[in-house]
Amino acid sequence: MQPPRTDLAPPKDDPFTVEQLKQYDGSDPSKPIYVAIKGTVFDVTRKADTYGKGKSYNLFAGKDASRALGMSSLKEEDAVSDYSTLSAADTKTLNDWYDFFSKRYNVVGKVIDLPPQGSHSQPPTGGASAL
Known about the structure:
The protein is α+β, with helices and mostly antiparallel strands. It has helices at about 20, 50, 65-70, 90-100; strands at about 15, 35, 40-45, 105-110. Strands 1-4-3-2 form a four-stranded mixed beta sheet.
């Protein structure tokens, strides 16, 4: 595991839409590679050997894949922003990943139009409707 960095830039709060974030998926070598976790956008370009096109963790690039990170999943269907149905253990894993990224990658912004938690094509788990 890589150690925390001491040379990170101050966090930015630039707004990104889900559609804009898709441009930073590693498919265009002239653009940085971004990964979002819980709506926070991290610049992972310096690890293009991991997050770049065709690489092992490219699934996370250009989107908020919080659910997959929490589940330690590399399945495309899990790579969504909705983490509302994660177990307590998976939520802890997700929070650990968030802390890991926060100490190693520059924060470049926030995703401003993520679907609300609990609305991302997950099977219903009961409870009140959001209508």
